[in-house]
Amino acid sequence: MQFKILSVVGARPNFIKVAPIHHALSAYSDIEHIICHTGQHFDSRMSDVFFNELGLPVPDYNLEISGGSHADQTARIMIAFEEVMLETEPDIVLVVGDVNSTLACSLVAAKLEVKVVHVEAGLRSFDRSMPEEINRMVTDVISDMLFVTEESGLKNLLKEGKSKEQIFFTGNVMIDSLVRLQPKFEMSQIFSELKVTPCEYVLCTFHRPANVDSKEFLLELQAVLNKIAEKNTIVFPIHPRTKFNLENWEMIKGFSDRVLLTDPIGYIDFLALAGKAKLIITDSGGIQEESTFMGIQCITVRDNTERPVTVDIGTNQLLGRDLQKVSEAALAVLDGKIKKGAIPELWDGKAAERIAAILHTELLKSN
Ligand code: UDP
Hints:
seven-stranded parallel beta sheet, globular, binds uridine-5'-diphosphate
């Protein structure tokens, strides 16, 4: 092996984004791909299941760092990742998305003067109260090469002073994973396991601190979900953060019987559920994209989105945190008032191949 690329994963969406890059890099015999798991998400339903389903190898390093405040977690990841950098001496450090691991590891690499590559760069919600927005902005400032998923990313980076030569519009690696696993999720048995009928249920996920860390908001959300459930069964896989709060505030019993509460669902089964939902109600970043790609109606319960293409041309409706509006729009969709959508440019399952080719050329050039 001549070159080394060290990729960082920390949380659920990171595994999904790095997997296709790992597979695409395997076509280059002169590149060794090393994977470092920081441990941000460690529980088997949030981590192991993704490695298995996505065909990712056991990570070369696992820093086993989770929990703590943002500063504490970021600092501990930085200290541990520096050791990995010194041991592996990579030519490139590749980070994805917008979690604390993304920020921590890109900072370490930049300080060691190792080239930083950010995949899913340039997305902006313009809301600095979101921890992810800070992570995105800082990571992009110190990244040498920026791979973007949609045109807004390109525009944002140019506005922030990045040069054209550093930015590559290559498409969406999250969609690569979806496309790769389509034959598998089409065979999923999740419908009979949950006893739900395809195309006859609403799927919802919530995990953003702004939504789930407020008891008042969660209570209001629960009332809205119970109301929607009068019309259609709801499947609600609960993120660990949300579960902790629902349990802490003794809210679990307050859900109607028609709101099916589950643990986080494995990726293949989740995609199967998403692909056959009548409607998705979410505050997730990635699910806005997956629903747009699959042409599934999506209501996003956030004041902003860093993925505007899903609203501009996709099936996503951004309704803010006004739950009255959410309820009305959801009932309208269930009554057949749907938003037509199209698939964004270059969301074709081949983004990782394009990224790998560009990285290979770059490595050949700089060595
Ligand atoms: N996902 C999953 N199981 C679930 C919920 C989500 O596999 O129970 C997947 C989903 O398909 C998407 C990703 O997790 O690809 C999104 O992760 P999350 O919403 O946690 O993070 P975000 O995208 O908001 O950063």
